[in-house]
Design brief:
- The protein is of the alpha/beta class.
- It contains eleven helices and seven strands.
C-alpha cells in the first residue's frame, strides 16, 4: 500500500496514516495526517479538513518558516494549533550550515538532538480529540521522521514505512524542482539528494531506532514519554 494525498488545492502532500497492515490489524484512518506546507490552503480546503475531522495541528517548522508562510490552521476556531519547532539543518536554518553528507544523517541528528520536542509532539498527538495533523515545509524530513515513529509504534513493516516516506518525492515533484532551481541560482550544484526521499535515508533512521532503542516505543520512552502517552498513541493508531 502507498498512501495518496487528500484532494486539496493548496497542499500537495497531505496524507492519512491509516490503512497500513500490522500484526494487530490495519492502522486507523482519520486519526493522524502527515502534511507539507499549508500556507496556500483555500477556504474549500479548510472546510474539507474540518469535515475530515481535523481538530489539532502541530507545526514542526522553525520561526522563520512560520513567519514567511503562516499556517492558516492557526486561525481556525475548530483546530487547536501548536508550534513544536524542530531544526532539520535545511529549511529551518536557510542553508546557513554545512550541508549534511546524507539525509539519513540528518534524521539521526534529529532523533538524537530533538528528544524533548518529540516527547512534546507525542503528548500532543496522544491527547488530541479527533484527527491530528502534523506538518513541516515539504512534509518529508521532520514530518517523515514523525511518521516513522508513529508507524513503527503501530507495528507497520519496515518496507511500508520506507514506501510511505519515499512517495513524497513523487507528490512534491513541482516543489522539489523549484527548490533545485533556487539552489542553482545561488551557485549550489550536486545537492539533489537534499530534496529527494530515498528509502535508504529513512531506513537508516529506522534501523537506528531498532538497534539503539528497540524501536519507536523505546525511543519515545527514553525521551520522556510516559506509559500513558505511549498506550494512548497505540490505541489511537490501532483502536
Amino acid at each position: 500500500m502507498v498512501s495518496t494525498p487528500l484532494p486539496l488545492e493548496g497542499a500537495l502532500n497531505v496524507r492519512d496514516l491509516g490503512g497500513y497492515e500490522t500484526d494487530r490489524g490495519k492502522t486507523r484512518s482519520h486519526v493522524f495526517l502527515r502534511a507539507d506546507n499549508l500556507a496556500a490552503l483555500t477556504e474549500g480546503d479548510l472546510t474539507f479538513l474540518r469535515e475530515y475531522g481535523v481538530t489539532c495541528a502541530v507545526d514542526l517548522r522553525a520561526q522563520l518558516e512560520r513567519e514567511s508562510s503562516p499556517d492558516p490552521l492557526e486561525r481556525q476556531p475548530w483546530a487547536e494549533y501548536h508550534s513544536v519547532p524542530m531544526l532539520d539543518q535545511l529549511n529551518s536554518r536557510n542553508f546557513e550550515d554545512k550541508f549534511p553528507d546524507t539525509m539519513g544523517q540528518v534524521y539521526l541528528d534529529l532523533l538524537e538532538g530533538s528528544g524533548p520536542a518529540f516527547a512534546r509532539l507525542a503528548a500532543l498527538l496522544a491527547q488530541a480529540q479527533g484527527c491530528a495533523l502534523f506538518h513541516c515545509t515539504a512534509g518529508k524530513d521532520r514530518t517523515g521522521v514523525t511518521a516513522l515513529l508513529l508507524l513503527d509504534l503501530a507495528g507497520v513493516s519496515r518496507q511500508d514505512i520506507a514506501e510511505d516516506y519515499a512517495v513524497t518525492e513523487q507528490y512534491m515533484k513541482v516543489v522539489i524542482n523549484a527548490q533545485l532551481r533556487r539552489m542553482e541560482m545561488e551557485g549550489i550544484y550536486g545537492k539533489e539528494y537534499l530534496y529527494r526521499s530515498q528509502p535508504q535515508d529513512i531506513l537508516r533512521a529506522y534501523d537506528h531506532l531498532q538497534e539503539k532503542y528497540g524501536g519507536a516505543r523505546g525511543y519515545l520512552a527514553h525521551v520522556g514519554c510516559g506509559e500513558d502517552i505511549l498506550t494512548q498513541l497505540e490505541k489511537k493508531l490501532l483502536g
